[in-house]
């Protein structure tokens, strides 16, 4: 079911991916993925383009394939909160969203670091709460090991409730306004946080007053039914993966709206911002040429062989990427998640069968299959065409905006801001200036309901 | 060693628990980014080589019970400063060494090689409860966590060789995986596989500070008094209250103590004129490699330090301004260390 939102505006975030295979590093215009200047330039462009947010992903172990570090993709990234704090110091409006997982952090510590970013940026912080879907990351942490999918979400749910309790501990006006006041902070304006749940046992005096936006905006990224329910219960924004096909995006949005109603929340209480890519050029012929160039850059022969190798569970690097798919069947590993965050743990034999059928039907080489099944091309066209398309998505309720991954850094966002944003503005579908200063304000979210405001003082909220 | 480095602790409003009463802004501004930037800029302009940021996950024993964590604060000012070293305190007793290593390496990138670290043992049981972790209280266990955390952080900083990113168009390889290393640390209470997610930081190894007990693992030992062995860099810590145009140092202390009495400090204290402090520091430079000053009220004391204390020290060559464009390590006279995993 489509909605009719004739005045709706498109929200943009920029997703600086860090580790990934879709940022083209082989082009001469491609710069460092780690030097601070790259981040400074991209966030500067995004802020000039009046974006809502700058996003950083997270991965806490380098990706491997067959026991070897994957050497084809961009790798190496900063710690998200530390990096966003540095970026907060040189920006003034744009939101700063840190992806941080709930499995290898503790709420007393992470809630504090996120709120610190929120206070220093004066209300521009967001937290993309992820659960991490691979086994091997645990080997870098004290708790070690693996946590089951369901337990990950149980932990995530309790984690967020605990974080909220910590963020809610201070009354809005707890700090003195005058140097002659009796105390710097009113003692009874700060509640002690004592929570005991199946995953956590936390007892602390919060060191964190509220920020201008109350507390960080909560994003969620995870697509399973459990993940979606988790979002409906906890999130302000969903960072979805349904950002390339309109019908699929609309189905997803309707599903989320239903889950929100079931959770007792208004159905517009969550903003949906899918990740996407945008390719712009002046005319149809150039668009086609540029799209091909992007795909070729993203799927070099070695990259295609590596991706197919992930499914087949073996090293295919000596095969011909322009030849057919391997004739033998994939090796089925005992736990598919040890192969990395890939293919959602689907049975590789099934995937191989599907891919062979696809290759036969369309007469595709191995590399072409990899492109066809992996690339989510997003939007391609002239700036005017893409502006029309994005406006339609938002006004018909498939999304509230997009989280754009530039396919080249640091310059990849320039075209979006210089060409696409003005087209959207002409259509009345994009802001012409920042009208708010907080991330919550940019996104048009309501104020967070705190325990104080709901009258709920029972700290067993996290149970 | 000809370098005498000047450092300053910039947590909160100053070392005195009632410092906020003499701050140059309203209490509700104490935690803002603007006020923080202002303080760090004042220290940088004065010529300090480094600023440190104390921290704890639980409220300080000060009137100011709120605080943004130290890594966030150091990072926030990284890109708006250009010469001053930025040194957060991060406890090692409960935190994840993998996270600490990444966070501080990131600070080194955003500050272009001006990051440091003061790892600390955390004795307070309230911290264990805040973390939700079993209490670690035996001195031997605290030492172990400290030692293992420093080891892991340092190993992770080296886990990418400097030229691990190859961008080899011909083979399609972004990385040379032979230049990435699993640290494979196996300790008593945790293990870490590695490699880091952050490539080797600009300084190679950040400047790590510690106490006498950490000497074999750190670059700089912070000493509270003169009876310490003198190998490697050793900095003296000093509480400082200066005379100002409107009140003498002792009047200022008296006024602050009338609100909240300062607990007795284990550090050496200096209370008096700027000229007296210049003499004391010149004398200190004969036996120490640097100082870390703890101003009683940052806003008030830093003004006196900038006007009357640092200029004569810089002019006489006792101390030096950090050199623009160089790293914190090199401003301390330290070299960029070779990578421990590099094959010879
Ligand atoms: C668009 C999108 C972006 C994501 N980004 C990250 C990320 O940066 N780091 C991470 O650890 N997980 C990331 N995830 C993974 C999810 O948080 C989640 O752990 C995973 O999808 C498994 O949960 P699910 O089964 O509910 O999908 C992302 C997921 C989606 C859909």
Question: What can you see in these coordinates?
Answer:
The complex is a heterodimer of chains A (463) and B (344). In chain A, α11 (383-395) crosses α12 (414-426). Chain A contains 14 helices and 15 strands. The radius of gyration of chain A is 23 Å and the shape is globular. By secondary structure, chain A is α/β, with parallel strands linked by helices. Chain B is built from 9 helices and 13 strands. In chain B, α1 runs parallel beside α8 (298-315) and α7 packs across α8. Chain B is globular. The interface between A and B is large, with 77 and 76 residues. The site of flavin mononucleotide (FMN) has 18 residues of chain A, from β5 and α5. Flavin mononucleotide binds at residues 57-59, 99, 101, 130-133, 221-224, 226-227, 239, 241, 275 of chain A.
What is the number of helices of chain B? Answer: 9
Return the average pLDDT of chain A rounded to an integer.
Answer: 91
Associated small molecules:
flavin mononucleotide
Overall body shape of chain A: globular
Number of strands of chain A: 15
Oligomer: heterodimer
Weakly predicted, low-confidence segments of chain B:
none
Distance between the termini of chain A: 36 Å
Strand fraction band of chain A?
Answer: 5-15%
How many strands, which pairing sense, and closed or not: the largest β-sheet of chain A?
9 strands, parallel
Helix content of chain A: 25-40%
What are the secondary-structure elements of chain A, in order, as H or E? EHEEEHEHEHEEEHEHEEEHHHHEHEHHH
- As a whole number of angstroms, the C-alpha radius of gyration of chain B is 21 Å
Sequence of strands across the biggest β-sheet of chain A: 11-10-9-6-5-2-1-15-12
- What can be said about the biggest beta sheet of chain B? 8 strands, parallel, barrel
Q: What's the shape of chain B?
A: globular
Quick rundown:
The complex is a heterodimer of chains A (463) and B (344). Chain A contains 14 helices and 15 strands.
């Amino acid at each position: 079911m489509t909605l009719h939102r004739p005045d709706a505006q498109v929200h943009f975030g920029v997703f600086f991916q860090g580790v990934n295979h879709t940022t083209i590093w082989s082009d001469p215009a491609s710069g460092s993925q780690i030097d601070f200047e790259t981040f400074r330039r991209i966030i500067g462009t995004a802020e000039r383009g009046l974006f809502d947010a700058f996003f950083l992903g997270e991965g806490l172990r380098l990706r491997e394939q067959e026991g070897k570090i994957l050497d084809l993709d961009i790798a190496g990234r900063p710690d998200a909160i530390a990096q966003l704090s540095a970026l907060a110091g040189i920006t003034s409006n744009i939101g700063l969203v840190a992806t941080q997982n709930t499995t290898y952090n503790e709420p007393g510590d992470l809630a504090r670091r996120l709120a610190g970013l929120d206070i220093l940026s004066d209300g521009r912080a967001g937290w993309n709460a992820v659960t991490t879907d691979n086994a091997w990351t645990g080997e870098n942490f004290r708790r070690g090991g693996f946590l089951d999918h369901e337990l990950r979400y149980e932990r995530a749910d309790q984690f967020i409730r605990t974080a909220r309790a910590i963020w809610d501990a201070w009354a809005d006006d707890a700090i003195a306004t005058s140097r002659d006041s009796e105390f710097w902070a009113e003692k009874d304006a700060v509640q002690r946080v004592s929570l005991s749940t199946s995953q956590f046992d936390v007892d602390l005096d919060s060191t964190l007053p509220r920020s201008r936006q109350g507390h960080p905006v909560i994003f969620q990224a995870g697509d399973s039914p459990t993940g979606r329910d988790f979002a409906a219960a906890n999130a302000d924004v969903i960072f979805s993966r349904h950002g390339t096909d309109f019908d699929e995006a609309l189905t997803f949005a309707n599903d989320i709206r239903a889950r929100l109603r079931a959770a007792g929340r208004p159905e517009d209480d969550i903003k949906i911002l899918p990740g996407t890519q945008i390719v712009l050029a002046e005319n149809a012929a150039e668009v086609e040429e540029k799209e091909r160039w992007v795909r070729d850059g993203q799927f070099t022969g070695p990259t295609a062989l590596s991706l197919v190798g992930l499914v087949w569970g073996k090293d295919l690097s000596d095969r011909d990427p322009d030849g057919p798919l391997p004739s033998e069947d994939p090796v089925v590993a005992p736990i598919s998640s040890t192969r990395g965050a890939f293919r959602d743990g689907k049975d590789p034999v099934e995937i191989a069968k599907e891919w062979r059928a696809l290759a036969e039907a369309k007469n595709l080489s191995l590399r072409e299959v990899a492109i066809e099944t992996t690339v989510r091309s997003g939007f391609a066209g002239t700036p005017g065409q893409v502006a029309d398309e994005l406006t339609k998505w938002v006004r018909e309720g498939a999304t509230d905006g997009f989280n754009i991954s530039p396919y080249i850094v640091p310059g990849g966002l320039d075209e979006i801001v210089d060409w696409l944003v003005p087209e959207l503005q002409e259509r009345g579908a994009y802001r012409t200036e920042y009208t708010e200063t907080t991330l919550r304000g940019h996104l048009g979210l309501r104020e967070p309901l705190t325990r104080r405001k709901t009258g709920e003082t029972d700290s067993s909220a996290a149970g | 060693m000809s370098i005498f480095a000047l450092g300053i602790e910039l947590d909160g409003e100053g070392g005195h628990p009632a410092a906020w009463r003499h701050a140059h802004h309203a209490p509700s501004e104490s935690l803002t980014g603007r006020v923080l930037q202002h303080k760090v800029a004042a220290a940088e302009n004065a010529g300090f080589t480094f600023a440190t940021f104390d921290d704890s996950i639980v409220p300080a024993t000060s009137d100011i019970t709120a605080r943004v964590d130290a890594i966030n604060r150091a990072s926030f000012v990284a890109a708006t400063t250009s010469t001053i070293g930025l040194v957060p305190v991060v406890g090692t007793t409960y935190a994840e060494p993998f996270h600490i290593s990444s966070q501080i390496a990131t600070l080194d990138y955003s500050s272009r090689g001006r990051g440091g670290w003061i790892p600390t043992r955390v004795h307070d049981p309230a911290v264990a409860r805040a973390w939700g972790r079993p209490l670690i209280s035996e001195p031997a266990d605290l030492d172990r966590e400290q030692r293992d955390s420093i080891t892991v952080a340092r190993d992770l900083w080296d886990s990418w060789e400097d030229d691990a990113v190859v961008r080899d168009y011909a083979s399609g390889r972004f990385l040379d995986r032979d230049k990435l290393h699993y640290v494979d640390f196996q300790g008593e209470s945790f293990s870490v596989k590695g490699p880091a997610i952050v490539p080797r930081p600009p300084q190679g190894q950040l400047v790590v500070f510690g106490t006498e007990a950490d000497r074999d693992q750190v670059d700089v030992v912070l000493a509270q008094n003169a009876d310490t062995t003198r190998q490697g860099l050793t900095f003296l810590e000093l509480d400082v209250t200066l005379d100002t145009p409107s009140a003498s140092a002792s009047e200022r202390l008296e006024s602050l103590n009338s609100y909240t009495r300062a607990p007795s400090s284990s550090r050496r204290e200096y209370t008096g004129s700027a000229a007296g402090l210049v003499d004391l520091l010149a004398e200190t430079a004969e036996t120490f490699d640097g100082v870390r000053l703890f101003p009683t009220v940052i806003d008030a004391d830093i003004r006196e330090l900038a006007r009357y204390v640092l200029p004569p020290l810089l002019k006489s060559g006792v101390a030096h301004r950090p050199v623009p464009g160089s790293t914190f390590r090199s401003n301390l006279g330290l070299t960029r260390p070779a990578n421990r995993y590099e094959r010879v």
